[in-house]
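Example 3.2
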Amino acid sequence: MKVQPVSEVKNPVRTDQFQLNKPQTTFITGGIIVAFLLGIYLVTTQEITQPILLLLGLLLGYTLFHARFGFTSAFRRFMSVGNGEALRSHMLMLAVAVTLFAPILAYGYSFFGAEVNGYVSPVGISLLVGAFVFGIGMQLGGGCASGTLYAVGGGRTVMFVTLLFFIIGSTIGAKHLPFWTEDLPSFAPISLATSTGLGYGGAWLISIILFGMITWITIVVEKKKQSPKMASVPSEKGWKRILRGSWPLLAAAVVLAVLNALTLMTRGTPWGITSGFALWGSKIAALIGVDVASWGYWQGDNAQALQASIFADSTTVLNFGVIIGAFIASAAGGLFKFTRLNLKNVAASVIGGLLMGYGARLAFGCNIGAYFGGIASFSLHGYIWGILALGGTFIALYVRPLFGLSVPKSKDSFC
C-alpha cells in the first residue's frame, strides 16, 4: 500500500489557514471594537482583574492562532508517526512555566493581593477515566479546549458544533462529578513541591529533568521511525511576522508560559477553560427549569458563581478573550472564513465535544487546566493526565477514519 508522508496527507484543518492573504480590515476593526466595548463594560461593572484577564485572553488567543499551537495535533503526530516537534515545544512551554510558577507559588506573589494557588488535584478513577476519554474526544472533535476556542475564533464552522457539545458534556459531567470523586477510589492531591518535602526548588529541578527526558525520548522515537518533519508554514518577514503569518512554535511556547504566569498573578489561579463551559451550560439548564443549584458541583465555593453574572467569572472572561483574539489574528492573516459542514465531521464533533466536556470535568481540567496548569503547578495529576490523554489519542487513531478524518502515516506507521 502506498503511504503518504505527513505533509501530503489530507489535513482536516483548512489548508487556507496556511496561505497568507490580505488583511481583512473590516473584521479586524470589528474585533477590536468588540474587545474594546467588552473591556469598558468590565471596567465599569466588574473588579479590576476582569478587564486585565480579557487582555490576557486576547493575547492568548492571538498567540494560539498565529503559531497554530496545538495539543491535539501534537499528540496525534507523535502517536501515529513519531513526530515529536510539537511535543518538544510543550516541554519548553512547561519548563518556562515551572520556572515562573515556582517563586509565584512559593512566595504568594500576586498583583492584587489575591491568594495564589496552583492546580493540584486528586489522583483517582475520575482522573484516569476523564483524561482517557478527553484524549479520544479531542481527536474526534478536531481540537482540544484551547484549540476549540481559537478555531471558533478563526471561523472553522464545525468547531461551533464541537463547542456546543463540549458545553453540554461539561454540564453533564458537573452533575455526575460527585459520583466519580466521592463514590470511587482516589488519592489526595499530590504536589511534587509540598507533598514530597522537595520544596519548590527541588520540584523545579525534578520537573526540568523530566522535561529533558521526554524531549530526548521524542528525538529517539523520531530517529527510529524516521518520522517526516512538520510542513513549513508561510509567514511574513521581519517585524510584520508579529502581526501576520506563522510564529515559531518555540517562541509561542515561551509566550504562552509567560501569559499563564501573568494569569496566575492576576486572578490567583492558572489559566483554565472548561469550568467556564460547565458554568455556561448550567446557567442555561437553570433557565429551562433544571434544579442545577442542588447538584453537588454547585455547592460550597462554586455556589456564588452560579448566581452571579457570567462576566464576574474570570474563566469566562479569559475564554471570550481567546475567541476574540483568535478572530483578530485570523483576520490579520486574511484567513477568517466559515467552512462547510458534512454529516461525518458534524457527527465526529458531536461525539468529540461530549467526550471532551465530560472528560474534562472528571479529570479536573483539560489540556490547559490539567495538563498545562497542573504540571506547571507541580501536580502529579498533570503528568498522569498527559499519559492517559496520549492513550486516548492512540485509540482514536483507529476511530478517526470512520468519520472521514485523516491519520498521519509514514512507512513505519499506520497503513
